[in-house]
Amino acid sequence: MARAGRRYSVGQRALLFALSLLIILAIAFAQRWGWLTTFNRSLMGGAGAWRDTAIGPPVTLAMIGLSEIGDTAARIGMTLVASAMLFWRGRGRQVLWLILVVIGGTLLNSALKQGFAAPRPDLLPHLDIVKSYSFPSGHASGNMIFFGALAMMMARKWAWVAASVMIALIGFSRVWLGVHWPTDVIAGWILGIGWLVLCGAWFRR
After folding, report:
1. How far apart are CA 85 and CA 14, in angstroms?
2. How far apart are CA 116 and CA 85, in angstroms?
3. Do 102 and 94 meet the contact criterion of CB atoms below 8 Å apart?
4. Which of 49, 105, 203, 205 has its CA 20 to 30 A from that of 156?
5. Which residues, 6 or more positions from 141, have their beta carbon under 8 angstroms from its beta carbon?
6. Per-residue pLDDT, 19
């Protein structure tokens, strides 16, 4: 990643991060003005229809498990485990980078949630207890940041594939459980990517 870290300057990465925030802002306004209602309701309605079929209960159980894996508390625990493993291998700078990236991304998402103050979807019964605002999805952004950061450190194709699968499944679980619109999840992914691009300027393998 050292080579990739020099590919873009800090200024270029900052511009890409700013672009991600602008895209999130555009999604937020489009969602608030109802331009994305058909898209959101069709996808979540489809998930609700599948919830009522024979495969619904086992899939719901899997989605609950994935959602718990992607929860903030579990993500902090996984970050501590990964940090301990890196520290044991003498990679103290990577430990500091990982912790700051995860904490910073979490605080950024929380700030945006408070700023947009978007209510949770009411189309389906919620299958998870939620008390915070909906946009952008903390599960989507947090796990994009955490698993993406791990893939960056491993720098292996299988790591990127595994990270992508986990990110996609956890994001989908939030729609299946009825607690996030699809655009909440998409915005969370965009936020996570933008934050990783910015923080990648200070990453060294």
Report:
1. 30
2. 37
3. no
4. 105
5. 105, 108, 109, 188, 189, 191, 192, 195
6. 97
Q: How big is the chain, counted in residues?
A: 205
The pair of three-digit structure tokens given for residue 187, joined into one six-digit string: 């915005």
Residues 6+ apart with CB under 8 A from 108: 141, 191, 195
Q: Say how far apart CA 44 and CA 48 lie, in whole Å.
A: 6
Residue recorded with tokens 């992508």: 164
- In the chain, the domains with their CATH numbers are 2-202 (1.20.144)
- Rounded to 10 degrees, what is the CA torsion of 44, 49, 52, 54? -120
Answer yes or no: are the C-beta atoms of 103 and 83 closer than 8 Å: no
| pTM of this prediction exceeds 0.70 | yes
pLDDT at 92: 85
